[in-house]
Design goal:
The structure holds 2 protein chains of 2 kinds.
Chain A lengths: L4 E3 L2 E4 L5 E6 L6 E7 L6 E7 L2 E4 L8 E4 L6 E5 L8 E8 L9 E2 L3 E5 L1
Parallel strand pairs in A: 2-11
Antiparallel strand pairs in A: 1-3, 3-8, 4-5, 4-9, 5-6, 7-8, 9-10, 9-11
Chain B lengths: L3 E4 L2 E5 L4 E7 L6 E6 L6 E6 L5 E4 L2 E5 L5 E6 L8 E8 L8 E3 L3 E6 L1
Parallel strand pairs in B: 2-11
Antiparallel strand pairs in B: 1-3, 3-8, 4-5, 4-9, 6-7, 7-8, 9-10, 9-11
Classes of the chains: A mainly beta, B mainly beta.
């Protein structure tokens, strides 16, 4: 079964440092999402891509977060500088709604701890 | 903005008992999706419901979409320890099919053997 690849699985960083996460969606999925999940809560969207274009980044803290998907395939999410409140699980997901299936396939996530 | 509310937040059951979680949206949804997240894992898509009043079954799991397309439920018959996890409902942005998904807070299910 096709999977969404994410790395790293775990990341510990000091506050004020830069950190980056990588995601490779299911082949052929044009839509890619980055979600953040705080422990005990549901995932919340940070940014949505359609191919290489950002279609929704309204909840992305743009003063410190950036995301790109240069060739419309894999994607990178960056935080600079990291703050203690950024500790969370960062989930990447992809979907192919053209099939009539609107469900997301999530990657295993990157658990970020900022110390 | 869009809100998806889920109750209860926690549910503890004895193995073999039934379990139900409820989801309510502040707006009419074009579809609703359910996900399961095992402890330490990531959300896994279970099902989507699109039609008003739709009912779908997956073995011991029964999913319903309300007539007004603003509420949904997931019912598990005769729970097993493998059902442990957090169940999330999620709906797309108002008036959208393809937009962002808003997730509920989830119902964390614990099953005692």
């Amino acid at each position: 079964e096709a999977e969404v690849a994410q790395s790293p699985r775990y990341k510990i960083t000091e506050k004020s440092q830069a950190v980056a996460f990588w995601c490779d969606p299911i082949s052929g999925h044009a839509t890619l999402y980055w979600y953040r999940q705080i422990l005990g809560q549901g995932p919340e969207l940070l940014v949505q891509f359609q191919d290489e274009s950002v279609v929704d980044d309204s909840q992305l803290p743009k003063d410190r977060f950036s995301a790109e998907r240069l060739k419309g395939v894999d994607s990178t999410l960056k935080i600079q500088p990291a703050e203690l409140g950024d500790s969370a699980m960062y989930l990447c997901a992809s979907s192919d709604p053209s099939t009539g299936n609107y469900g997301y396939t999530f990657g295993s996530g990157t658990r970020l701890t900022v110390v | 903005g869009q809100q998806v509310m889920q109750i209860p937040q926690y549910q503890h059951v004895q193995e073999g008992e039934d379990f139900t979680t409820y989801c309510n949206s502040s707006t009419t949804l074009s579809n609703i999706q359910w996900y399961k997240q095992r402890p330490g894992g990531h959300p896994v898509f279970l099902i989507q419901l699109v039609k008003s009043g739709e009912v779908k079954k997956q073995k011991r799991l029964t999913f319903q979409f309300g007539e007004a397309k603003k509420n949904s439920s997931l019912h598990i018959t005769a729970t097993q320890t493998t059902d442990v996890g957090t169940y999330f409902c999620a709906g797309p942005d108002r008036g959208s099919t393809l937009g962002r998904l808003y997730f509920g807070r989830g119902t964390q299910l614990t099953v005692w053997p």
